[in-house]
Amino acid sequence: MADLVFGPGFAPDDEAAIGNWLRTNGVGEDDARAIKEQGLERLLVYRTLVRGTLREALECAIPRTMARLGAVFDEYFDRYLAEVAPRSHYLRDVTPELLAFCQPLWPADPRVPAWSMDLARHESVQIDVASELARPLAHEPGELSLELPLRFIEAVRLMRYEYAVHRLNDDLDDRTPPAHEPTALLVYRSPEHEVRYLEQSPLAADILERLLAGQPLGNALQTACETRTIELDQKVVEGTATLLADLAERGALLGSRQMEEE
Fold it and tell me: What is the pLDDT of residue 140?
């Protein structure tokens, strides 16, 4: 059945292809004869329904990527189903699985614009973040300590792109290419359950990346500044404090993690 649903497919009257499908999958002669006598129309309807459901899940997650790539996307969708197929029972996992399959392939395909994976990741992160837990409305953020890591909500991601895909028009018919401009966005789910996006400076993104990885606040500040050969001065400290206070007010930051939570 997996081969029937995810394989290349065939017409219900293509006897050679049907015979090959039955032999390849080790179907005995009696069963093969019964399948041929009953006809494959109903089985092929099942193939259409399953593939259609998977495609609808992708259209909900990455509609602009699919619209811009057109037939090229269809080709990679067919390859994904034939070579890998979905590993999860959850439809929300289809998009990241497909993108993981395409990640090493798209850069080598001249038909796929260089910004395509950035756009797909940007579109799909909304569903990823929306499925995670936001901060409860009644929660009050705690104090921050330089010696401790910080506690963020589950529904937060730091996204890095080589292209400014977040500025593209939502219109599915728009074909304007994004600017080639390295971009970092903090994506989070608000207490009101809205997915929101905050563009970050290069230094702020480096600090947040370390904090999200579990580094203590003071260490994250120091190593981020060292990486960018920036002096860790009062301006950096105050700017970081303002950023973290804003994230706490927005519901993305909960406070410092206590030692016993490590």
Answer: 73
Residue 1's closest CA among 30, 29, 34, 42? 42
Could you read off the pLDDT of 131-146 as tens digits, one per residue? 998 877 667 778 899 9
**Are 203 and 228 spatial neighbours (Cβ–Cβ below 8 Å)?**
yes
Mean pLDDT of the chain: 90
The three-point CA angle 16-3-35 to 5° equals: 55
**Confidence at residue 247, expressed as pLDDT on a 0 to 100 scale:** 97
